[in-house]
Every structure is written in C-alpha cells, then in structure tokens.
Amino acid sequence: DVKVTQSSRYLVKRTGEKVFLECVQDMDHENMFWYRQDPGLGLRLIYFSYDVKMKEKGDIPEGYSVSREKKERFSLILESASTNQTSMYLCASRRTVYGYTFGSGTRLTVV
Amino acid sequence: EDQVTQSPEALRLQEGESSSLNCSYTVSGLRGLFWYRQDPGKGPEFLFTLYSAGEEKEKERLKATLTKKESFLHITAPKPEDSATYLCAVQAQGTGNQFYFGTGTSLTVIP
Predict the structure, then answer these.
(1) CB contact under 8 A, B43 and A98
(2) Of A6, A15, A30, B22, which one has the greatest count of Cβ atoms within 10 A?
(3) Interface with A, mutate which of B35, B99, B106 (most A CBs under 10 A)
(4) CB contact under 8 A, A100 and B42
(5) Cβ-Cβ contacts under 8 Å for A30 (sequence gap 6 or more)
C-alpha cells in the first residue's frame, strides 16, 4: 500500500526554536506538498516541490522554508517557531494528474 | 478569484437517514474535483476524482456527482462509521499542481 509518512504525530516546541518536520513517500511521486490545517480556515498551502531541489511558495510561506534533497523526502522548516504556527501540518504527494495522498499529520504546539 | 465553498459546515444524521453534502466552486477552468474523508487527528483520505460535468462515482454508501458549478456527495443510509469530515478540493486549469480546498463538512451519524 502506498504511503506518506510524517516523522512525528505530536510535537511541542518553544517559541524561537528551529523546528524540522519530515515527510517521506514511497510512491516515487514527483510532487510533494506541505499544508497547514486550522479550524475554520481549511487547508492552506505552505510550499510545494515538483522535483528534487525545486521548491515553490504556496499561499502562506512566511516563517517557513523547505528542503528536498531526495525525491522521496520533503522537509518543512520553521526557522524560529512562534505561537501562531501552532497547527496541524499535513504533507502530501501526488503523481501528475492524480489526487493527493496525505500523511497522518503532525500536530505542532508552540509554547 | 478561485474559490471552493462547502455546505453545510456540520451535519447530524440518524443512522439510515440519507442526505447530501455540497461543494460549490468558482474557477476559471476545472481540471479536477476531489473528495476526501478525514477522521479526527488524521490526514485526509482520498475518495473520488471527478473531471467533467455529468460524471458520477460511487463507493459503498457514497456517490459523488459533478455539475459545472458544484459537486454533491450523496450518502445513502449512513452508518456511524461514516462520521468524519468530508473535504472537497478543486484543481483549476493554469494553476499547475495547486489545489484549492474547502473548509469541509463535519458529518455525525447517530446510532
């Protein structure tokens, strides 16, 4: 069965910390995405990547960066975590023309 | 501006009571409309893709339909295990790999 694996289900970090969220897919998909999901706001795209070492900004990239050194791995980096980055973070991958496959999500709390 | 609106926000049904969820969209050109199911604390799970008006897809008690302006997810004789949030997403022409998500309908089926 195809999978997108996010390294942590729950994380608690302090304000100002640098935070790494890892995502690995085993489907050889070209495209990978990072979303955050907040009540009433739905899913908002942070960054996406359509190839190794390529990245594109989504709708809300401020305060985030990404890294894609290998096709199967897409990392989201919070440079200096803030309380307004407390959220559910979802990684997804897709092959062109198909829908997303999502990971289980990481619930990040910044205190 | 491309938009996706889902209604109602929340729906409570008795077991066996059929109903429909709505996803209306305004995009310049539709490439695909996607339905997902999301259980609490988990990532969305893919259900259906619809590409053109008049298309229908079915899976167990769920049936998705598409017109030029909206999609419906019909739930026939729901069971408690159908309780979840149902998300709709649209991929518009010219947006590359980006999807636009609605905020979801939270469905509760009461035994």
Answers:
(1) no
(2) A6
(3) B99
(4) no
(5) A50, A51, A71, A95, A96
Q: Which residues of A touch B32 (CB under 8 A)?
A: 97, 99
* Contact residues, chain A, for B43 at CB < 8 Å: 4, 90, 92, 102-105
Cβ <8 Å between A94 and B103:
no
Contact B61, B71 (CB under 8 A): no
Q: Please name which of A66, A58, A56, A63 lies closest in space to residue A84, comparing C-alpha atoms.
A: A63
Residues whose CB falls within 8 Å of the CB of residue A11, separated by 6 or more in sequence, listed in order = A19, A21, A106, A107, A108, A109
B67-79 residue pLDDT tens = 999 999 999 999 9
Confidence bin at A110 (pLDDT 50/70/90):
very high
Q: Say what the pLDDT of residue B13 is.
A: 97
Chain A partners of B103 at a C-beta cutoff of 8 Å?
40-42
Tell me the pLDDT of chain B averaged across its residues: 92
Kindly state the tokens that stand for B71: 């999609």
